[in-house]
Amino acid sequence: MRFSSNVKLFVLLLIVGIFLLLGYVHYSFFNERLNGDIPVDEDQRNTRYVHYSFFNERLNWVWCEASNRDIPVDEDQRNTSLSKPIFRSRVQNIVSPERLLYKQPSVLVGRTDVMAVTPWLAPIVWQGTFDPDLVDIIYKSMNLTIATTVFAVGKYVRFLRDFLETAEKYFLVDFNVRYYVFTDRPDNVPSVTMSQGRHLSVIQVPGSNRWQEISARRMEIIQTAIERQISREADYIFCLDVDSKFHARWGAESLGRLVAVIHPELYNQPRDRFSYERRPASTAYIPMDEGDYYYAGAVFGGFVEDVYTLTKVCRKQLEKDARNSIEAAWQEESHLNRYLLYNKPSKLLSPEYLWQDFHGKTKEIKVIRFSGIIKNYAEIRPNV
Ligand code: UD2
């Protein structure tokens, strides 16, 4: 009996000992890992941080900075995961209120003098192809905010008053609009009465003695503003030229994921006449036998997220060209055209949405909504 209870005690102690030993091995293994003595696959490390960043970007960022300075993180990965802004834009259903009465849409009758759809089935917006009241009612129920960027650098600040006053009259009326005015002369920004739901921010940017640089740097500045502010404040964004005025309704028919305007001077030209960048040395290069439409740099927009990607890519291409001492024929407009050739816009605005005051109205233009004013380039620009 005595002998057998001794055996029992021995077995019990043995089991306890084994558990203690296993516990020690387990502890020291993970302790070593935490101290970094065991080599860990760098990708695995990064993946872990990226994963955390999904849940708490700010917390993770601080933590990474403090304790993992030596972990190499791919710049693009950083941009797309750690520091990528969180966007508000979301695809929503097109919901119309019950019992809303409007003209019956026809399958057989409509505009026949213009193309209202691209070969990749994106709509081209012309007067007569949409019901303005219906489209506004649908989008108003979504309670959207539309950011609108405009640059007024140097003497271009003088165009702001007309731009803003006419925008208040015609541009996305009754929608929440946040204007972002980028200027080197904040004191000269006029005070314009804003309707309810509309707001203006002034952001100071450097001037330049080259208009080409002012125009081209817009991509970089818009990208940064989206990261810092706009991604939190808006669903859609439009980026517009300031030397222009609104003349008629510009409503929710213009909203889409990625929106571009067809240039008023080249909409009826063959593609080999488009003023794309034609030198293969530039990253904006488009061969003569390619191209859909020529898009103007004066108007582009869409979901904030999509425009963010557009500005980021164009900025990178502009910088790459600059390192190779090449400037595309029409600066950021050339890069925009290259981007949109391969990243097709989901909606195109007809030249009604960007006309030029010096052009006579052509028969297919039933209404001019937004138009560039006539200006004396030699007087207004910092260089000729
Ligand atoms: C065309 C494009 C423009 C841009 C430019 C590229 C059209 C109607 N416009 O316009 O969008 O792609 O070519 O070269 O297709 N700006 C200033 N201060 C300056 C110069 C420019 O603020 O000193 C800003 C301002 O917002 C202006 C915009 O840049 O509206 C474009 O400059 P522009 O209008 O002088 O260029 P333009 O008419 O050649």
Describe the overall structure:
By secondary structure, the chain is α/β, with parallel strands linked by helices. Helices cover 38% and strands 14% of the residues. It has helices at residues 2-35, 42-55, 57-67, 75-82, 132-140, 160-170, 211-216, 218-233, 304-323, 331-342, 377-380; strands spanning 124-125, 145-151, 176-183, 198-204, 236-240, 244-246, 258-262, 295-303, 347-349, 355-356, 370-372. Helix 6 links the parallel strand 2 (145-151) and strand 3. The chain is globular, with a radius of gyration of 29 Å. Bound molecules: uridine-diphosphate-N-acetylgalactosamine.
Q: What keyword list fits this structure?
A:
single chain; about 375 residues; alpha/beta; 8-stranded mixed β-sheet; 3-stranded mixed β-sheet; 11 helices; 11 strands; globular; binds uridine-diphosphate-N-acetylgalactosamine
Structure described in brief:
By secondary structure, this protein is an alpha/beta fold.
The secondary structure category is alpha/beta
Largest sheet: 8 strands, mixed
Helix content bin: 25-40%
Strand line-up across the major sheet: 1-9-7-8-5-2-3-4
Output the helix-strand order: HHHHEHEHEEHHEEEEHHEEEH
Average pLDDT number = 85
